[in-house]
């Protein structure tokens, strides 16, 4: 008989089958279906850090879970294209290091040959607050870290105004590689990178997500509505509140829009406070 008789062999075989299935799902570009509703204890201490054990940080209390659960759920009108997409993503809640390992020296899309560095993400793996931008620019490509150029300096100020800091939140992009001449991400590039952003979201399990600019909002909320129609109110992505706001690069070009962006970020501070998460530092009270 070919069947393994040693229980350790059986376990190894099971793990390997599971790994293969998870890799298949990641390649299919499906966000992970969280295991089910998991109670999320309130961080009453307001430490600004999510102290839940990693395995307890998969789903927020209002998460519906289950097959057919839409990727994005809108909180109100003005939100287009909310199909019951298949769940997206890689393995639920794998640690970031594992996700980074799976990404490897990625050649899944046409951006690979021209990039200097893969820009994976930066910050606290247990951050309750996650920012998602568009794609690395020249500085990020050179240094391998998101938002380190001029737009990054503004993002740092926005985060600081909220009472947070770069090392206490988590920052990632829709694309991990720089599009040549900073052109917009192409649909096939977004598609190739999507499972990894999904896996980062699963790993960090943020309590609130802030999307910066159009590509992030459109991907996370499964819509093509303009940012001006989306920003200013919370949406949902698989139970996680999502606040779309302007991209810092846009704010550098249109400083008159900073007031609106700040009003979005203040709502985020309030939302976190409602669930018992205070920023590590005192937030500013007026526009930056
Ligand atoms: N713009 C982005 O969207 N992401 C970066 O990392 C840098 C600039």
Compact description:
The protein has 288 residues and is an alpha/beta fold. 35% of the residues lie in helices and 9% in strands. It contains 9 helices and 6 strands.
What does this structure look like?
The protein is an alpha/beta fold and 288 residues long. The chain has a domain at 65-83 and 93-274: Uracil-DNA Glycosylase, subunit E (3-Layer(aba) Sandwich). Helix content is 35%, strand content 9%. It has helices at 7-28, 96-103, 138-143, 150-161, 187-204, 214-221, 227-230, 248-253, 258-274; strands at 122-123, 129-133, 170-173, 208-212, 235-237, 240-245. Helix 2 packs antiparallel against helix 5 (187-204). Residues 133-137, 140, 146-147, 151-152, 173, 249 line the site of uracil (URA). Uracil binds next to helix 4.
CATH topology of the domain at 65-83 and 93-274: Uracil-DNA Glycosylase, subunit E
Number of strands: 6
* Series of H and E elements: HHEEHHEHEHHEEHH
> Structural class, judged by helices and strands?
alpha/beta
Fraction of residues in helix? 25-40%
Low-confidence stretches: 1-5, 20-46, 58-91
How large is the radius of gyration? 19 Å
How many helices? The count is: 9
Mean pLDDT comes to 79
- The name of the CATH superfamily of the domain at 65-83 and 93-274 reads Uracil-DNA glycosylase-like domain
CATH hierarchy, class of the domain at 65-83 and 93-274: Alpha Beta
CATH architecture of the domain at 65-83 and 93-274: 3-Layer(aba) Sandwich
Biggest sheet architecture: 6 strands, mixed
Bound molecules: uracil
Q: What is the strand arrangement across the widest sheet? A: 1-3-2-4-6-5
Beta percentage is 5-15%
Shape verdict: globular
C-alpha termini separation: 72 Å
């Amino acid at each position: 008989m070919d069947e393994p008789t040693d229980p350790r062999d059986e376990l190894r075989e099971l793990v390997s089958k599971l790994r293969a299935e998870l890799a298949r799902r990641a390649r299919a570009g499906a966000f992970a279906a969280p295991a089910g509703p998991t109670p999320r204890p309130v961080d009453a201490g307001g430490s600004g850090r999510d102290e839940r054990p990693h395995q307890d940080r998969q789903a927020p209390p209002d998460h519906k879970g289950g097959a057919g659960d839409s990727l994005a759920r809108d909180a109100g009108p003005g939100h287009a294209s909310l199909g019951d997409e298949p769940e997206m993503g890689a393995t639920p809640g794998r640690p970031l290091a594992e996700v980074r390992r799976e990404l490897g020296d990625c050649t899944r899309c046409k951006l690979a040959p021209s990039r200097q560095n893969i820009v994976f993400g930066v910050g606290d793996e247990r951050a309750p607050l996650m920012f998602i931008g568009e794609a690395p620019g020249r500085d990020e490509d050179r240094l391998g870290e998101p938002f380190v150029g001029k737009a990054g300096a503004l993002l740092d100020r926005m985060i600081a105004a909220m009472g947070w800091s770069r090392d206490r939140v988590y920052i990632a992009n829709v694309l991990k590689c720089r599009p040549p001449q900073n052109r917009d991400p192409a649909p096939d590039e977004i598609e190739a990178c999507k499972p990894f952003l999904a896996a980062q979201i699963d790993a960090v399990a943020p309590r609130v997500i802030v999307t910066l600019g159009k590509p992030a909002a459109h991907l996370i909320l499964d819509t093509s509505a303009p940012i001006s129609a989306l920003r200013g109110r919370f949406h949902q992505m698989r139970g996680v509140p999502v606040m779309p706001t302007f991209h810092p690069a846009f704010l550098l070009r249109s400083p008159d829009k900073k007031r609106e962006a700040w009003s979005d970020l203040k709502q985020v501070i309030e939302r976190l406070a409602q669930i018992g998460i205070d920023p590590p530092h005192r937030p500013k009270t007026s526009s930056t």
